[in-house]
Design a protein that fits this description.
Layout (H helix, E strand, L loop, with lengths): L1 E3 L6 H9 L5 E4 L5 H5 L3 E3 L5 H11 L4 E3 L3 H14 L7 H8 L1 H11 L6 E2 L9 E5 L9 E3 L4 H14 L5 E5 L4 E10 L2 E11 L9 E4 L5 H17 L5 E10 L2 E8 L7 H9 L3 H7 L15 E7 L5 E2 L3 E3 L5 E6 L6 E2 L8 E7 L2 H12 L4 E3 L2
Parallel strand pairs: 1-2, 1-4, 2-3
Antiparallel strand pairs: 5-8, 6-7, 6-8, 9-10, 9-12, 10-11, 11-14, 12-13, 14-19, 15-18, 16-20, 17-19
Helix pairs in contact: 1-10, 3-4, 4-5, 5-6
């Protein structure tokens, strides 16, 4: 089988597949990525080129194709699967509907799903808007423009189009709500297991760097979100597997913002596994092996995930922690002396911290979100 990603976030996927007895190759265009350096089986390939990816699959006799932890990986797998027909990968039409922001908004409006209002690029909305590339991620090319700021709107549209592979952008109503993610495993269009995670951006408000399982999330809202995800899975005839969604919540009203079928990055899988004991990685990978995820008993551990990033550039010397932290896991990304670019490009490390209870978890999350947990070179 072939895993299409070499980023460290795909490490748990590779480990699961190999521990399950599979022979796994993995492809990526960056020979300095974690998987390329750490293990045998690396195939240097720019998988954004689906023709080259298809040729590699044919040459290696690949039976199963597993997308990694970024949108481009899944999209290329969907393009290849149109002709090579791998299990667990959606039709290209469904993939485009989900991954292309403009197409998803149009689909969602037709289906009655909860999404922000969308405006044409030549409109001058009477409300604040957020402008995004239709096919970029990690906060790139995003700008918030206040109502009536026509020149700023034109500038934001230009910025978003410059970051877009297709040169297109989305202009939609700016909703000021709390960001969450809903990570659900579906079988036959029904959610069999799901999780809600509260998310914050401390270094860059458009990039999540601090998160934990939501505490006391409204049951009625959770039920409505499940229904909308099931509607989406059924209407687009999605394959069994993961449907990962980001949404905004304000009061009891929510808006779907982003949906993807690939495993989220920055080791989101480990946040769920450490917090609940649920085999998130195995459940994700099984979908591409023609197998199904199954619900199971869950634990309750209070775990914070925090990606150490900067709002500005800097040369890493050390980090000084201002508050005690029970480190469950520390994943170094940068080394002393490395130049750290501002978020979303540069990252120093990933921290998984264990807390004694919900109150301590919320306190630690607040410290991280306010950037008071540690001092860079302090």
């Amino acid at each position: 089988m072939l895993l299409v990603d070499t980023n460290f976030s795909s490490g748990p996927i590779l480990n699961y597949l190999r521990n399950a007895g599979h022979t796994v190759m993995f492809a990526g265009g960056k020979p300095n990525d974690f998987l390329a350096k750490a293990t045998p089986g690396y195939q240097q390939l720019d998988y954004s080129n689906p023709a080259e990816l298809a040729d590699l699959c044919t040459q290696l006799g690949i039976e199963y194709l597993v997308p990694g932890c970024n949108d481009r990986s899944y999209y290329s797998c969907a393009e290849v699967s149109e002709t090579l027909h791998f299990p667990g990968i959606d039709r290209l039409e469904a993939t485009e509907t989900i991954n292309h922001k403009q197409k998803f908004r149009s689909y969602a409006q037709r289906e009655g799903l909860s999404v922000p209002r969308v405006f044409d690029n030549d409109e001058t909305p009477a409300c604040a808007v957020i402008v995004k590339p239709v096919d970029a991620y990690s906060g790139r090319g995003i700008t918030v423009v206040q109502a009536g700021e026509t020149s700023q709107l034109h500038k934001a549209i230009g910025t978003a189009k410059a970051e877009s592979r297709s040169g297109d952008c989305l202009v939609e109503e700016y909703v000021e709500g709390q960001l969450y993610s809903h990570s659900a495993f579906v079988v036959n269009g029904r959610v069999v297991q799901d999780f809600v995670v509260i998310e914050h951006g401390s270094a860059n408000r458009f990039v999540v760097d601090t998160s934990h399982l939501a505490i006391d999330f409204p049951v009625e809202v959770h039920t409505r979100i499940r229904r909308e995800i099931e509607h989406l899975a059924q209407s687009l005839r999605l394959c069994d597997g993961l449907v990962h969604t980001q949404f905004l919540l304000k009061g009891n009203e929510f808006w779907l913002v982003e949906i993807t079928r690939r495993c989220p990055g920055d080791l989101y899988s480990q946040l769920i596994e450490l917090s609940t004991g649920f085999p998130y990685v195995a459940s994700y990978a099984k979908g591409f092996l023609g197998q199904r995820a199954a619900p199971g008993p869950l634990k309750q551990n209070f775990i914070l995930r925090h990606t150490l990033t900067l709002p500005h550039e800097g040369l890493l010397q050390h980090l000084h922690f201002n508050h005690p932290v029970h480190m469950e896991r520390w994943v170094p990304i940068a080394a002393t002396g490395d130049f750290i670019a501002p978020s979303p490009v540069g990252r120093m490390a990933l921290l998984f911290a264990r807390c004694a209870n919900a109150a301590d978890l919320q306190t630690l999350a607040s410290l991280a979100t306010q950037r008071r947990l540690y001092t860079f070179n302090g």
